[in-house]
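Hi C.,

You asked whether I'd gotten around to modeling the 137-residue construct. I have! Everything is below, sequence then structure, no commentary in between.
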Amino acid sequence: MRVQRFWRVITNQVFRQALVVSSMALALMSCGSEPNNSRWVFKHDGSAQCDRSFNRELSVNKQRTELVSAGIDVISSNCGEITSLEIASVCGAPTLRINVYEIPIENLQDTADLGFNNTDNITYRDIGCGSSLIPLF
């Protein structure tokens, strides 16, 4: 009898703790539930394999200027590399490097008209801009 009561008390305590943790998790999940009013778009950065003179920082700034000149606000930007594709390693061939920009969702079609694509269609990794330590192929 004592053992049963002991397990019932322990079980109730564990259940209460699990309920509290679950409630806290639900509350935290609903905190950041504001709609996402921005999207990420990308464009090839213009780099070619084996081209050690290419300046990624200049490329990302040039494309940012292209967007801003078209009246599109750029919230943030970064340099990336597409990981969902493979290409042959040939000097002079394009790399999988891209410039990535966060823009307001209402400008999505405007960026498409400029040749930018939505990142929802690819898998990529951020590689940072301006680093010369990343191999070109």
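If it helps when you're writing up: The chain is about 35% helix and 20% strand.

Thanks,
B.
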